Amino acid sequence: MTRTSEQPAKAAFDLGQGPGRLLVWLYGVFTVAAASRSIVQMILDFGRAPLAYVLSAVAAVVYAFITYSLVRGGPAARKAALVCCGAELAGVLVVGTWTLVAPSAFPDATVWSDYGMGYLFIPVILPVTAMMWLRRAPSNAGRTGEADPSGV
Amino acid sequence: MIDALTLAVGLTALALAAWCGFAFSRDQSTKDWHFIGMAVVSVLALVQLVIGVVRLAGGDKPAQGMAIFVAYLIGSAAAVPAAGFMSLVERTRWGSATVAAGGVILAVLEVRLYDIWGG
């Protein structure tokens, strides 16, 4: 979908303003953290814990996509980001449980190990906060077109 | 690395976080004074980056590996300036919250840097 330059630039940023700006910042930081972590570890010693490193890379991709969606804004990005936050939360819970149940599968930690304990549990808190924001964020499109069903 | 400098960066970063957190709690955006504070913390982090690179060039080896050490050095130098730019765009209390989060992140990076250097 292409956006023409005549459209007001503001309309594209409804998700990344106000509280959304803080989320963009945190998701951006976690994108860099997860990506650099997995890249460095894969280059240095991929054989040591391939599963952990691949999961970190997956986390980085999910974080990057949510960051991009928040900056882009609009109804489509909101839906996409909501789906990804759900996937992120599921990922943290599944990987977190997995690392506790079968520690032998993880000779090295991932971003999501032990529910993100090494990252102050922010990996668990962030998707919940983001989903709350995505549901209630004021939508410029919503005011003119489709109604926001969440009813803040 | 240089423990005193790591400690100084960490503590000033936490002070910046508390200061901007206070602005957030009072529903204020970041003001000129906050940006001067961010500049001070950023300069300290930059000095640390330079000293870290000089020590590496001088033959010192971080306990947990050179690549991770350099990545954390760059990240710690970039954290507060990046948050500052975002708070320039966001002229509400949420801009202050962004800088406060950046200060906490920098403090955490300093703890990790200390571990990576010393093992």
TrEMBL record, chain B:
It comes from the Bacteria. Keywords: Membrane, Transmembrane, Transmembrane helix. The chain crosses the membrane at residues 33-54, 66-88, 94-114. This is Integral membrane protein. The lineage of its organism: Bacteria, Bacillati, Actinomycetota, Actinomycetes, Kitasatosporales.
